[in-house]
Specification:
- This protein folds into 3 domains: 88 residues, no CATH class; 196 residues, 3-Layer(aba) Sandwich (Rossmann fold), CATH 3.40.50; 84 residues, Outer Surface Protein A, domain 3, CATH 3.90.930.
- It is α+β, with helices and mostly antiparallel strands.
- Helix 1 crosses helix 2 and helix 5 runs antiparallel to helix 7.
- It starts with 9 loop residues before the first strand and ends with a strand.
- The longest helix is centred in the first third of the chain and has 19 residues.
- The strands form 5 sheets. Strands 7, 8, 9, 10, 11, 12, 16, 17, 18 and 19 form a 10-stranded mixed beta sheet that branches. A 6-stranded mixed beta sheet has the order 3-1-2-4-5-6, covered by helices on one side. Strands 13-15-14 form a 3-stranded antiparallel beta sheet.
- 32% of the residues lie in helices and 28% in strands.
- It contains 11 helices and 24 strands.
Length: 404
C-alpha cells in the first residue's frame, strides 16, 4: 500500500458490526457508501489503533481495496464500484456477527404486510424487479440479501438496490425516469437507486414472509403471468441461494437448513412470475398477492431432478436405499440429501412411491414396475422403463445400492 504523506485515514463503524473499515485519502468512497446504505447508517471517526482487515485507499494509480482473508489488493474503477464491493463485504461481516441469521440471496418487498421473496441466482432480475416495486410505491427490504431469523421473519440489511447500466430499451419510460430521479452513486456499469424516505426498510427491521416468487424475465414484450408452483421449487431455491456457513451449524449445510426451510415451504405459496417490462410485472404480481387475481397452476416436475433417461442397470437385481441418505417429505414430493456429498435430489409422487417401497424391502426394477403399473393402471413396459431410468439416476447419485 503506497499512500500520500498527508493522507488522513478514517475508520468506519456500523451498527451490529462495529469498527470494520478504514478509508485512506478517499472521501468520495465514504460519500458513495453512505448514500448506497441509507438504511444502515455508518459512523466515521479519525482512525485509531490497528487497521481493520477491510480497507480502501487512493494513490497515484487509483482506488484500491483489500481482499479480506488474503494479502491481496485489487483496483476499483470508481467510488460507485467501491460502494458495490464494500457493501457486499460488510454484509458478509454482519452475517458472521449475527450467527442466528441465515443470509438469503434474494430480493424482497413488503406487500400487504408480508414479504415476497425472489430467491434467484445472479442476473435473474432481482434488482430490477425490486426497483420496479419501489417505483410502484412498495417498501423494499432489499434487492440482493435478506436475513432470515430463527422465527422465520425477514430481516432487512438497509442497502439500496443496484442496477446494471445501460437499462434495456424495452423498459418503460416511467421506470427509467424513476431510476434517474432516485439515482444514487453510479458509474458506467452500475447505478444505485435510493427510494424516497420510508421506501427502504432500515437495517434490522423485520417482517413476516408471505410468498416465494421465482422469476422468468423475457427480453421481448410479454403480458405478465403468475403460475403456481409446487413447494419444492421454492425449497430448492432457498437451499441453493443461502449464504449461511456450514461451520456455524456444525453439520452439513443442507441438513442444517432443511428443518428451517421445510416449515416455511409448508406455509408459503410458491409462484413463478413471467414478465418482460419490470414495472408492469411488479404491479401485476402485487395484484395477485393482494388477492385481486389468482395464479395459474404450472405443469408438475419430472420424477427426479437427476433422472433423464432409461438406465442400463440390471432389472433383475434387488435394490435397497443407500447409506447416508436423509429423507424429507414436502407435500407429495420427497427430498433426499446425500450426506457424503451434500447433494440434494427431488422426487415427485412416482419417485416417492418407489423410495417408500424400497424402504420396506429390496425390490428389483421389474418388481417395482409391476407394482406401480398396477397402482396407476398403466402399461407395465412403459412404467418399468421409467423406473429403470429413475433407479439408474439414484444409483449414480449414491442414493440406492444393489441388495447384498
Amino acid at each position: 500500500m503506497s499512500l500520500a504523506a498527508d493522507a488522513a485515514p478514517v475508520d468506519v463503524t456500523l451498527p451490529r458490526v462495529g469498527r470494520c473499515l478504514r478509508v485512506y485519502n478517499a472521501p468520495e468512497v465514504l460519500e458513495a457508501l453512505g448514500r448506497a446504505m441509507p438504511g444502515w447508517p455508518l459512523r466515521c471517526e479519525p482512525a485509531a489503533g490497528f487497521s481493520p482487515e477491510l480497507y480502501v485507499y487512493r494513490d497515484g494509480a487509483g482506488l484500491w481495496q483489500s481482499d479480506p482473508g488474503t494479502a491481496e489488493e485489487f483496483m476499483l474503477p470508481s467510488a460507485a464500484s467501491a460502494a458495490c464491493s464494500l457493501a457486499a463485504d460488510l454484509l458478509s461481516l454482519r452475517l458472521e456477527q449475527e450467527s442466528e441469521l441465515v443470509g438469503l440471496h434474494c430480493g424482497s418487498v413488503e406487500i400487504g404486510g408480508r414479504l415476497a421473496l425472489f430467491p434467484q441466482s445472479s442476473r435473474a432480475g432481482k434488482s430490477t424487479l425490486a426497483t420496479a416495486f419501489a417505483a410502484a410505491g412498495y417498501r423494499l427490504f432489499g434487492d440482493d440479501v435478506l436475513g432470515l431469523s430463527p422465527e422465520g421473519r425477514g430481516v432487512a440489511m438497509g442497502v439500496a438496490p443496484r442496477l446494471r447500466l445501460p437499462l434495456p430499451a424495452s423498459f418503460s419510460a416511467e421506470f427509467a425516469d424513476y431510476t434517474r430521479r432516485r439515482a444514487g452513486p453510479e458509474d458506467e456499469r452500475y447505478r444505485f437507486v435510493v427510494p424516497a424516505d420510508g421506501g427502504l426498510a432500515r437495517s434490522g427491521e423485520t417482517c413476516p414472509l408471505g410468498a416465494l416468487v421465482l422469476l422468468e424475465r423475457h427480453d421481448t414484450p410479454v403480458s405478465p403471468e403468475v403460475l403456481t408452483l409446487a413447494p419444492g421449487e421454492g425449497l430448492l431455491q432457498l437451499l441453493c441461494q443461502n449464504f449461511a456457513r456450514a461451520d456455524l451449524f456444525q453439520q452439513p449445510l443442507p441438513e442444517a437448513l432443511m428443518a428451517r426451510f421445510l416449515s416455511l415451504m409448508e406455509q408459503l405459496p410458491c409462484l413463478l412470475l413471467r414478465y418482460g417490462e419490470p414495472l408492469a410485472g411488479a404491479r401485476y404480481l402485487a395484484r395477485v398477492l393482494e388477492g385481486g387475481e389468482a395464479g395459474t397452476p404450472a405443469s408438475p416436475p419430472s420424477g427426479s431432478a437427476a433422472a433423464d433417461s432409461a438406465g442400463t442397470v440390471d432389472r433383475t437385481v434387488p435394490w435397497r436405499p443407500g447409506a447416508g441418505v436423509s429423507v424429507y417429505p414436502l407435500g407429495e414430493e420427497l427430498f433426499l440429501i446425500h450426506a457424503p456429498s451434500g447433494d440434494i435430489h427431488r422426487l415427485n409422487l412416482t419417485g416417492r412411491l418407489v423410495w417408500q417401497l424400497l424402504q420396506h424391502e429390496a425390490l428389483a426394477i421389474a418388481e417395482l414396475g409391476a407394482l406401480l403399473a398396477d397402482h396407476f393402471a398403466a402399461p407395465a413396459d412403459a412404467v418399468t422403463d421409467d423406473v429403470a431410468g429413475l433407479i439408474q439416476a439414484l444409483y449414480g447419485a449414491g442414493l440406492v445400492a444393489p441388495a447384498g
